[in-house]
Amino acid sequence: MKILLDTNVLLNPDLGETILRTMIERGMIPVVTDYILDEVTTNIEEVYSDPKKAAAILMTLLDILHLGGEIKQWDEYVHHLDEAFRLIIEEDAPVLAAAMLPDIDLLITDDKDDFLKNKRLQGTPWRGKIKSPRGEVRPESWTQALVNMDVFTRGIRGWQLMKLLSRRHQLTRPGEDTGQKLQSRSLDQELTLTALRRALAQRIPQTHHSDQGIHYAAPAYVAALQAAGVQINMTEVGEVVPLMSAVKGEVS
Question: Residue 165's beta-bridge partner residues?
């Protein structure tokens, strides 16, 4: 599934980085255009007053996109511009034109006036593609892999695979009641803890490095590291960590 992300979603401090990472984890392909990236670059310092933080956030977004996203170029969607101009204001027409491409499944935007509540879009084939970031963008299932890597030797110390399901598609273990939920849409703690336990069984590291994901900050995960005497190191919010990106690319 290819999902086009509007500028306002990428610039939202509570959505941009999170929605990109979540989509890639779930096997979706986040898509932006050259036009959207220009808007993000131009406007990011209005969202983040600190220029250094703005630059760090921008680099993080680009880093994630290069890992598992796609960037559409102007000549790929320019032929849809005339139709887009008839339906929406000029500055948003290139975004709608890109959403009209046949390989784009959804456009995620927070723009209520020009997209979500635009009466001119009602009854068109494109309105069904336009969704709020708070809406239901959910596959039935996807497979999540998690690894713990020794960044010096590049050896995989712990790993775990798990099939994750949407809330609408429950999964039960053998012998459990069919009504008992096994997995929510959030990254299951069992996934991270199993990978960690396998890693600790092989070797106790001096330091455990991660981002600030809730699964790494969970009490059970932190307790397991502390019990093994491992120092915990987490990145700052918005910090660019090239080493982590390189590791992800090497594993994939």
Answer: 141
